[in-house]
Amino acid sequence: MEKKRCEWANGKNPEMVRYHDNEWGVPAFDDRVLFEFLVLEGAQAGLSWETILNKRKGYRKVFSGFSPEKIAKFSNAKLDSILGVPDIVRNRAKVYSVRVNARAFLRVQKEYGSFSKYFWNFTRGKALQHSFRSSKEIPSETPLSQEISKDLKIRGFTFVGPTICYAFMQAVGMVNDHETGCFRYTQAREERK
After folding, report:
1. What is the pTM of this model?
2. Residue 156 neighbours by CB under 8 Å, 6+ apart
3. 79-82: long-range pairs with CB below 8 Å, 24+
4. Cα(114)–Cα(88) distance, rounded to whole angstroms?
5. Rounded to whole angstroms, how far apart are CA atoms 183 and 107?
6. Which one, 18, 62, 143, 177, has the greatest CB density within 10 A?
7. CB count, 10 Å around CB of 72?
């Protein structure tokens, strides 16, 4: 019998299924992982997550494995060369935002000791448990994602609006938005204990 998954993961793309089953909603505390998802969620703006997931390897390659230390030093010429790579979303504002966000990310790390400490402080280190039966019930933003977005913007981040922040929160497990009928819903609850 096939496992029941969240509606968005019921397509035929095996990469989407793998991502749903193994990554989405798993609490992430590693700064590199958090930076990767912050970049990818920003790149998704106006596009489907499937498009971004299909380009993830390209992003890892051109953005030095999502090393904020390396990306912060990228020259304009380097960013312009990245714009020619077909394996990413070739949007100038989005590509340049990766360097802007890397620099802001490093400032947050310096201030808090890690981006993870800063980010998870918004929920006192705890993942929020939701109980949505359908994807139609899941909000695109929340008061918390609005608060995080506002704070990130004050700190110099770009492509971090409330909707992007909420998708980021879902991806890195700050919230459990697996539908209650999804096999990962209960597992995700257990991962938070």
Report:
1. 0.94
2. 100, 103, 104, 107
3. none
4. 27
5. 39
6. 177
7. 17
The span from the CA of 92 to the CA of 83, in Å, is 7
Cα separation, 39 vs 75, in Å, equals 18
Rg of the chain on CA atoms, in Å: 16
List domains and CATH numbers for the chain: 28-191 (1.10.340.30)
The pLDDT, as a whole number, for residue 193 is 46
Give per-10-residue mean pLDDT for the chain (193 aa).
Answer: 86 90 95 98 94 96 98 98 96 98 98 98 94 93 98 98 98 95 85 56
- Lookup: tokens for 47: 């596009």
Q: Which of 188, 190, 162 is nearest to 177 (CA)?
A: 188
pLDDT of residue 188: 78
Q: Which residues are catalytic?
A: 19, 41, 49
Coil, strand or helix at 114: coil
Convert 153-165 to b/e letters by CB count within 10 Å (16 or more is b). eeeebbbbbbbbb
pLDDT of residue 187: 80
The structure tokens listed for 193 are 């204990």
Closest C-alpha to 184, from 1, 5, 2: 5
